[in-house]
Design goal:
Elements lengths: L2 E6 L7 H8 L5 E4 L8 E5 L2 E5 L12 E4 L4 E2 L1 H10 L5 E4 L3 E2 L2 H14 L11 H9 L6 H4 L2 H21 L7 H15 L3 E2 L1 H10 L4 E4 L26 H5 L8 E7 L2 E3 L8 E2 L1 H10 L12 E3 L1 E2 H11 L3 E5 L9 E10 L2 E3 L6 H6 L1 E8 L16 H14 L3 E5 L7 E3 L5
Parallel strand pairs: 1-10, 1-11, 2-5, 2-10, 5-7, 6-8, 7-9, 11-16, 15-17, 16-20
Antiparallel strand pairs: 3-4, 12-14, 13-14, 17-18, 17-19, 20-21
Helix pairs in contact: 2-7, 3-4, 6-7
This protein binds inosinic acid (IMP).
Inosinic acid (IMP) binds next to α4.
């Protein structure tokens, strides 16, 4: 495949950054297609760890063209901060992407506070309010931002209406002048990177370049197909790539679903296979399961193949990349959820109604664990038999072939089972 999408199959944090960085060794182009700095992608290479929130995970490779596509929402301040820490080579930003301003973050927090015990548990990065403005046709695009005059007039108009919204939350008004003065330097910083990225990507495809499309979050956080309302405000599915990048649907050749060897979730909302107590804490600490963006401890659960089959159906997943397999070493037994029970009936799909999903209890198959340290394994054959059987069980219950698995955070701890890109 020459044009591959990297999709999170669970609730985000599956290790997409690491898999993108690994596959990017063979790519010419990496395109980030949705979300904003709510995402946190960790890439570890040559003993150094990089935390990326906005920049595509190909950014560490000077040979790669990196694109921030129109489906993204970009916080200019966060962009400036991130780019100052890295040497950004060949970076392009879509003129049609939308921008996140501080009032979006304030409204994100205020909206959550108002929900009291019904909070989504957002990252407070202003992502929801920015996509809301985009849909309401009152957002600001990068193309406006980089023209000082247009930026001035548009911002003035927006701040006026935002201050009315702020008043409803009893928040102090935003000063338009101060905001403009603070953000003007960011618009100048961003301008050299801005282009029509749809044209650019299509041109690169015409030149037969190898393209990776990098998703943020995971399918269960998809606005349409996730556990609504406990979702983000964009679609991390492979199906969203054409609209979020400006290419024809048939140009996407396939996708690799990145799946943790277990489940995690940050934020609220049901998670049927969630586990508590010592075991969860052991996995949390060993797997360093604390949010890259917010530092929040992640909720831990067994692998849920109902979730992965759902992701396969709504997104399309050609292959799987199973990450963090090493974290399960040392357990006596490991469970895989294969179906749920709801109101006394076995079900194999995710119900639309969140109350129903919250009542689903998992049905498991139990497999034998392994005790060996697998962090130096370089092939499937080198894995202990129980770990091989675990991967085979994942293939069996998801109906998806595994192309990659990983046994540690470094690029060198990633093993190709099948060459797909
Ligand atoms: P928002 O995207 O900040 O609006 O948050 C909505 C939900 O998505 C919350 O449950 C967040 O914790 C979750 N979320 C957003 N981005 C990520 C991510 O990159 N990884 C995991 N969860 C995320």
């Amino acid at each position: 495949m020459k044009r591959l999408v990297i999709v999170g199959t669970q609730w985000g944090d599956e290790g997409k950054g690491k898999i993108t960085d690994y596959l990017a060794q063979k790519a010419d182009v990496v395109v980030r297609y949705q979300g904003g700095n709510n995402a946190g992608h960790t890439v570890k290479f040559a003993g150094q760890e990089y935390h990326l929130h906005l920049l595509p995970s190909g950014i560490l490779n000077p040979k790669i063209t990196n694109v921030m596509a129109n489906g993204m929402v970009i916080n200019p301040q966060a962009f400036a901060e991130e780019i100052s820490r890295l040497k950004a080579f060949n970076l392009y930003i879509s003129d049609r992407a939308h921008l996140v301003f501080p009032y979006h973050q304030t409204l994100d927090k205020a909206g959550e506070k108002q929900k009291q015990d019904q909070q989504i548990g957002t990252t407070h990065k202003g992502i929801g309010p920015t996509y809301t403005d985009k849909s309401a046709r009152i957002g600001m695009r990068v193309s406006t931002f980089i023209h000082p005059d247009r930026f001035y007039h548009e911002l003035e108009k927006i701040v006026k209406s935002k201050n009315e919204e702020f008043a409803r939350y009893e928040l102090p008004p935003v000063s338009f002048e101060a905001l403009y003065e603070t953000y003007l330097p960011y618009s100048k910083l961003m301008k050299p990177y801005v282009t029509d990225t749809s044209k650019l990507i299509n041109q690169l495809i015409d030149e037969n370049k190898k393209v990776l499309f990098e998703g943020a979050q995971g399918v269960m956080l998809c606005l349409d197909h996730g556990t609504y309302p406990y979702v983000t405000s964009s679609s991390p599915t492979a199906a969203s790539v054409p609209v979020n990048t400006g290419i024809a649907p048939w140009l996407v050749e396939g996708s690799i679903g990145v799946t943790k060897a277990y489940s995690t979730r940050v934020g609220s909302g049901p998670m049927p296979t969630e586990i508590d107590g010592n075991l969860a804490q052991e996995i949390r600490v060993k797997g360093r399961e604390f949010g890259t963006t917010t530092g929040r401890p992640r909720r831990i659960g067994w692998l849920d193949t109902v979730v992965i089959r759902h992701s396969k159906r709504v997104s399309g997943l050609s292959y799987l990349a199973v990450t963090l397999l090493d974290i399960l070493s040392g357990l006596d037994e490991i469970k895989i959820c294969t179906s749920y029970t709801l109101n006394g009936k076995e079900i194999f799909d995710i119900p639309a109604e969140i109350e129903d999903f919250a009542q689903c209890t998992p049905n498991y198959v139990t497999l034998q664990g392994w005790q060996e340290d697998i962090t130096n394994v370089q092939s499937f054959a080198e894995l202990p038999e129980a770990a091989q059987k675990y991967l085979q069980a994942i293939e069996k219950y998801t109906g998806i072939e595994i192309a990659i698995f990983s046994v540690g955070p470094d690029r060198t701890q990633t093993i190709t089972v099948k060459d797909i890109f």
